[in-house]
Design brief:
Helix content of chain A: 25-40%
CATH class of the largest domain in chain A: Alpha Beta
Radius of gyration of chain A: 20 Å
Number of domains of chain A: 2
Distance between the termini of chain A: 27 Å
Largest sheet of chain A: 5 strands, mixed
Strand content of chain A: 15-25%
CATH architecture of the largest domain in chain A: 2-Layer Sandwich
Largest interface: A-B, 41 and 41 residues
Oligomer: homodimer
Strand order of the largest sheet of chain A: 3-2-1-4-7
Number of helices of chain A: 9
Number of strands of chain A: 12
Chain lengths: ~325, ~325
Amino acid sequence: MQIEVSLGIDIGGTNTKFGLVDHQGKVYVYNTIDTKAEQAAEKLFQRLFINLNRLLNQHPDELQIRAVGIGAPNANHYTGRLEYPPNLSWDIVDLPEIVHDHLDLPVAVTNDANAAALGEMVFGNAKGMKNFILITLGTGVGSGIIVNGELVYGHDGFAGEMGHVIVERNGRKCGCGRLGCLEAYTSASGVVRTVKTLLADSDKPSELRDIPIDTMTAHQIYNAAKNGDTIGIEAFDTTARYLGEAMADAAAYFSPEAFFLAGGVAQAGEFIFEPIKRYLEANLFGIFKNKIKILPSGLPINNSAILGASALAWHELEA
Amino acid sequence: MQIEVSLGIDIGGTNTKFGLVDHQGKVYVYNTIDTKAEQAAEKLFQRLFINLNRLLNQHPDELQIRAVGIGAPNANHYTGRLEYPPNLSWDIVDLPEIVHDHLDLPVAVTNDANAAALGEMVFGNAKGMKNFILITLGTGVGSGIIVNGELVYGHDGFAGEMGHVIVERNGRKCGCGRLGCLEAYTSASGVVRTVKTLLADSDKPSELRDIPIDTMTAHQIYNAAKNGDTIGIEAFDTTARYLGEAMADAAAYFSPEAFFLAGGVAQAGEFIFEPIKRYLEANLFGIFKNKIKILPSGLPINNSAILGASALAWHELEA
């Protein structure tokens, strides 16, 4: 059987994932390889295509690749280039040029959070929505913003950096060098920093006191919250307050139909969704109250990056 | 001579302005009438069209109206309706329906700040720009946000309310009922409130001490600043700080090519533009630094509302 697929590639600091995905979001071929960012980017793609061709040869169906979508940190949609990506030792990489050594097909490029938003719109819980914001709460905090059914790239291609709006003037130091960014409070390590503060500021008993702060994970805090641990619950409440306040401002700009929450911190479920809803509503401009949905991502977390990159490829092909 | 024009209408709490404007932004017929919001909205349009037809009959050229654009507070682009407009006693008004009693032409509707942004793009300093934000600093603070050459209306038509992002948590009471909105600090009355605080917090000499605070205007503060008055200069610096900080957050969302400043407070020229530039750059996320222009509106202030409404009509007709 001949099946049309797009090749979705997600380049991360440690691993690069790729997969072949049809129009309905079904994944036919999938693999993860080491990024080996200390080598040139060309080497990564050489290994990727050798790997991909082996998988294609083994596959019972004839998978016809129609387009390529790539999600990567600091990837610029307009230029197709990676520009000084964090956690990768490359400086500027022209992704379409490298892909064209292997495949003569359209190549679309964007950052991982933007790809995730398109994945949500094409395959996930945002099907049919024209205006929404997806926030990824992971190692960093990113966002993909959809207006009128299209990603907001802005003038230079780098729009949608909700993780770097200031939520606390002169607040916590952020990885970007500034003070008080949303990311510093609501990334996975942001939640751990909040626990650290809460533990220092009170002498409430907490199972989290037994975990060295340097090794503590957001998942451990979630487990503590599930056990009724006051500090654990409070940490997610504080995280949610910063998110709810920032989302209320975002609503004033965008009037979205929904916010989607993805990434590790969003896995805390009601410990984060319930207080976000409460803080969002408490801070919204009047005309937006009780209108905006807060939803989890509808994509499986282990495939979401591939599905996002693949959705980008399909979306651009149909544009 | 036969000339194609659009009818631009700007409905305000006290006055309603209208004009006939060609594709190049030339205004052929222009008038201002009382809104008389205590009467039904139908009465306003009856008077407007009687007045317009009289002017059309007197005009030497044959002005052929092709479309109608209306800017008004709380006007919803999607529904064409005014919904509980502030300062007007109407509840819900279906504007296209009322216009169609007089003219069988396409009618487009939006709020005044959105219309101003389109006016800037079609006739003003934003010609050729695809991504920018216009901020109106007047009685209120509004914004019109252009992404990919189109206004951001959002899911419900009410997007672009930059005046109601929170710039000071638990700060000044805003007219919208919440605390700390940008509007409470950077509207014309916001600048006066800042002067009041500055006068109370110091005993610096200032010519502004001679003006009763209830009658003080932003223009008087501008005159004081021009005379070297420390309090006057400081008031614009504080206003600019709130604007620059909010604009840095807006840049993280939108990555605009430029910000445009319009309205009364923007007339303070370098007393407001210079510190805004400084505070914006100090607060920007790294990748946006030294890229974003801050520009004055290119539309004459007395005609800007008409030109904005007319630009909306042309823009929709060509969409």
